[in-house]
Structure formats: structure tokens, C-alpha cells
Amino acid sequence: MQGTVTAVSSDDDHAFSKPNRDRITLLAGLGVEGDAHAGVRVQHRSRVARDPSQPNLRQVHLIGEELFAELGAAGFAVSPGQLGENVTTRGVDLLGLPVGTVLRLGPAAVLELTGLRNPCRQIDDFQPGLLRQVVDRDAAGNLVRKTGVMSIVRVGGPVRPGDAITVQLPAGPHRPLDRV
């Protein structure tokens, strides 16, 4: 399976949205250079408040741009970086990949998927009613979170819009992504 990076975003502030960049640099074991969520230990404020010693399993946030088209059809205008993701992708079913999937981005960077982003009420602060659009139920009644996946950086390197994404599944049995 292959895809493409369509946008990269970062911010040194703990803001909800992140501005788009010409490139970002991923740092092994840390995340996006200069991003507020980079670090060995958890950086998300709500998680730091609970236990600041937790490992940072949310170093890089990825969202498929296909979500933006779905939201647009429901009357919401959302573009890359606005939901706080660092990497916007096209052509990869991020939500369908298992824990431990390796994504190679561009010439050098390597990410390992750790779980799903758990959308919170801040999404409704961004656009009222958006939370209902990004949380759904499947046919069996299970909760479906659509706001992307979280990962850790295994190998650092630059990532730019237009870079190829190569997907490598882990050895089975596969474990579905869950919130982290």
C-alpha cells in the first residue's frame, strides 16, 4: 500500500490548529522538531495533568485528507493542519491499519503507529457540531474515531508535501488501533 503526504504542519504552541509548513523534520524518539507535542514523555496537557511520566505515544498525528472531503459533504470546511495533525495524507486507510504498522515517509523518516486520536470537545470549539461528524458507530455499534492516528518516530528525517508514504504491516496477528 502506498500513499502521499499532502501537507505538513507544526506549532510550538499548544494551539488546536497547526500552521502548514514547507517541510517538517521528524526526530527519532521525540516527534516533530519545534512542535509543542514533541518529547519522550507525554506532552498533551490533559495527559500531563494525569501522569507526566507516561511515554509519549502521540509524537506525530496523521489524518487522511479523505476525512476533509467527508466533512465538506456534511457542510464543514476543514483543511490540513486545522484539526491539529502534523501530517496530512492521501491514499492510505490510516484508520484501518493495525498497531505497530510502519510508515515510511519521504527519503528517510519512519513512523510506527501507536493508536487512534481520541477526539474531544475542543473540536466543537473549533466548529460547532463537528464532534458528531468525527465520531460514529459501525454496524456492530462500536465507536469509530475518525480524527486520525498517532505515532512515534523510529527514524528521523525531513517530510514534505508530495513525499511518498510506504506502508509495512507488522507480523500477525494484527491488533486494531485503539485510542491513545
From TrEMBL:
It comes from Actinocatenispora sera. Coiled coil: none annotated. This is MOSC domain-containing protein. Residues 18-168 form the MOSC domain. It holds the Pfam family MOSC. InterPro entries: MoCF_Sase_C, MOSC_domain, Pyrv_Knase-like_insert_dom_sf. One of its GO terms (molecular function) is molybdenum ion binding. SUPFAM superfamilies: PK beta-barrel domain-like.
